Amino acid sequence: MRPGGGKNKGSDFERLICRRLSKWIQGSELPELFWRSASSGAKATMDHRRGKIAKMYGDIIAIDEKSYWFGDLFVIECKFYKEFDFGKMLQKKGKILEWWEQVCRDAELAGKFPFLIFKRNQYPIYVMYNLRIEEIINDLNYSRFKFDFYVQWSYYSTISLLEDWLNFLDPEMLRHYSSYLS
User: Fold this and answer.
1) N or C: which end of the chain has fewer CB within 10 A?
2) Domain count, the chain
3) According to DSSP H, which parts of the chain are helical?
């Protein structure tokens, strides 16, 4: 990969996720409801280290009133890597666990739920979220068996395919329930 190619790949992935989430909420990619945060989440980390109160966490933020509820509920972290070992994902030193711990720390500081979206080359996009969100999905009568890929994992999280999550979960229903979680 050419120098800087990984950063561009990550930025392109974040923009793709912004479009997918916008389409999920309103049925269209435009107008955009989400966008990459300033420095793609690095600003919150730097503010926290300097003792400032960060207002922005994660890689993606809500930029429209139609999506503010989602941004108020989740810290969204995106990772797109050439390779990571799915076999090691359940081990304490696996990349996915490292990413999950990062987004959980940021979510705790922000008073929100963690939402990790990750992808490996030649694989579909996955989403990892908190089990409290899983409880809501079950309350909405969504069966976990509708998901093609679904793992209830330790560390209070669930992993599924992003497409399944977007296809089976009605954003209006989640928005309605989000007021009970905050």
Assistant:
1) N
2) 1
3) 5-26, 42-49, 68-73, 95-110, 131-139, 162-168, 171-181
